[in-house]
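Write out the 3D structure for:
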Amino acid sequence: MSDASDLGGPNAAELHSGERLQKVLARAGLGSRRIAENLIAEGRVRVDGEVAVLGRRVEPDHQRITVDGVPVSPTGDLVTYVLNKPPGVVSTASDPQGRPTVVELVPDEPRVFPVGRLDADSEGLLVLTNDGELAQRLTHPSHGVDKAYLAEVEGVPTRATLRRLREGIELDDGPTAPAEAHLVQSRGGHAAVEIVIHEGRNRQVRRMLDSVGHPVRRLVRTRIGPLTDPTLAPGSWRPLAYEEIRSLYAASEKAAPLTPTQSDAVLTKAPNDEGDPEGLR
């Protein structure tokens, strides 16, 4: 009779050394051990890329464990926050000009970095994390995670203008990709326009609207992929629930999974990367 290793599963040493996988999952906050056992039985848990089986033991400090593709942190050292960035705060870990930073608005430990940036005058949702893979998935254009913004602009865009925004605008660094653009409301010579983009260049939404004759008076990011929270007050933050993190990973599945080297590189350069690919400022 073939054993587990013959079938490509864990060998005897892997089944009988280390901690029980369901105990590790429960400690990571995924529910009771019974719930963890159900996750394993449903084939939703992988260890080093292989589907785990009941009875599996792991060395959590040396093996990669995922549930539905989301990395599991047995020690709780992977954290992800969503912040409603207020105006006047810069999206960096430190600022040579002494301005307040987004990192100062969330807990000091464990250390996190902003995923992408909003310029100092812009507001709205910003993810901060120490999960390098998630950061790369949310910022790299190959993953196509869209972001939605509400812009208060001078004047009222016509249907033709909105069509130009949807089809792409010629900027000094090349044409923009097709976007979504909708007139939300207009009043007293001003209008609110919703813009949804999949790429992210330096101050892209501001430049798009300025190029069609409607300078931005106020800009708020309202959504990152499936993540939104209209109840989060300016300057407030909260940790993301597992299902929210899972939904962000799912939204980024347009490209192949990243290597650990790629993931680490994102967090290494994030604090000072002025050429940040997220770029809606």
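The chain is about 25% helix and 25% strand.
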